[in-house]
Amino acid sequence: MNQLLLELANKSLTYRKMLNLYWITIVLTILLEFLIHRLETFSAPYTFLYILVMQTLVLSAITGVVEILFRFRKIHNDDLLILTGIIYASSIIYMNPTIGIVPAIYIFPILTSVLSFNKNRILLAYCLVILSFTVLYLLSPTLRESMLTNEIIGILFLYVGVTVIALTITSSGIELLNNLRHTTQTKQELLVKTIIMDKLSKMDALTDLYNHKTFHEYLEKLIEQNERNHLPLQVAILDIDNFKHINDTYGHWVGDIILQRVALIIKETVTSNDFVARYGGEEFAVIFADKSMDQSYLIAEQIRQKLSLTLHPELDSKAATISIGLQNYATGDGKEALFRGADAALYIAKRSGKNKTVVQTPVPQLTSRS
User: Fold this and answer.
1) Which one of 22, 182, 214, 272 has the lowest number of neighbouring Cβ atoms within 10 Å?
2) 168-189 residue pLDDT tens
3) Is 282 one of the catalytic residues?
4) Are the beta carbons of 211 and 284 closer than 8 angstroms?
């Protein structure tokens, strides 16, 4: 049901289907009229064929104009469809005035108007049908002679009945579409809220980095990859030097600014394969994936050097430095050993003068710099 309503709500798709129906109607109308008149005896077959050809050309021309407007000008007007339906029905009735039931075909444009889900258009279609039937009845002596009074009353009641049904269907359809839109909107809002809540549960609000919990979840997955595929893996712990002094001297609001700037520099320096998190307080953690130890060390040093050269107006134009501990993961060690190694390297960096990068395992051809 929902899929059907969505298709009806898609104006372009509905318009395309109605145009296809009109083209099919032309073919069927011509075939049926030809067969009907073949069964009848009439004195001027060539006159009939001429009228049939002209009818085909007129209907094709009208439908062709609507097709061009839709395909090349992207115009899909419901009133134009209704008017086209009126012309179709009038043409068929004019060609077959002696068939008593044929005026019932005027219900076609009324039913077409239902697809607009607009009550005013349905009433417009009804008025056009009554007007067109009246004009045909006055202009066609054959139609007047072939229709009895009770048939005229029956046809008029048919138009009214179909219009009432169309209005009822439209009211129900509008209500269903509104409910569907409301349900869809509610689902979308819930999805957005779920995404936001999921992000909030994983992110640190101040720095917009991943939080402590997410860091460990991601690290566990990467360790599993290392155990299966020997994916290179290193962890760095970064700690802002003398951060307590910054908070005590300049205020916690300045400390928050420094945390945000440090986070930004780290994010801008690491690669897309790396994972950055605020581990807690003034500590940050970076997981380097698919890199050699030398490459990870160089990135850590770039972060440290950038921060040592960044002067902060809030700190009287002084820099806020960081110390970094870096540890390579050896298959089979496990998460705790990896993290303890990085933490031990950070402790050495702090104890040996700060503002330096220390690795737990010596890096060939590279030395720590202050």
Assistant:
1) 272
2) 988 887 787 788 778 777 777 7
3) yes
4) no
